[in-house]
Amino acid sequence: MKVNIYSLKDPRSNTIMYVGATTATLASRLTNHKYFANKRTSPVNLWLSGLYAQGLEPIMELLEVTNYSGWKVREEAWIAKTGVLNVSKVGTGIVTKEERSEESIERSTVDKRKEVICIDTDEVYPSVSKAAKANKVAQSAMSKALRSDGKLNGLTFAYYVAKSEPKEEISVIEKTKEDE
What we know:
This protein is an alpha+beta fold. The protein has helices at residues 26-36, 43-53, 71-82, 102-110, 128-134, 139-147; strands spanning 2-9, 16-22, 59-67, 116-118, 124-125, 151-152, 155-159.
């Protein structure tokens, strides 16, 4: 497995502010950084949050591609040389899907799953991934359709919200002095 060692540079000064490692694409990792910029308070996230607030984007640059077994040593070398905002001298780790336990995978997804319904067929799917698989489309295409007009391959999809059963009506009868 290949690991990308990358830097994030300040667009105002072209200074390397952070060094990281990922097995994902650089674009995907940058999206992840952007997502967490306002949710976490590490030095890199505070810096990124400030950039985004000014309408600026960090410059992401591939520094090196290394193998999985040697990524920590390589990332540490780059951090020692340039990574001023890194909290530690080496990343916390890249965990592959194969290394995660079933319980860990289930825990990370169980609360995020949303049921999906095909409006045209009334079929309900337990998750976006299951809807995508059943309709032979990429999960990203299904997600994109759900975020927009719901149309995909001639069908219309939406997040499914089960209707709750109607509650019994409870009549409240007020007693008046005449009733007593």
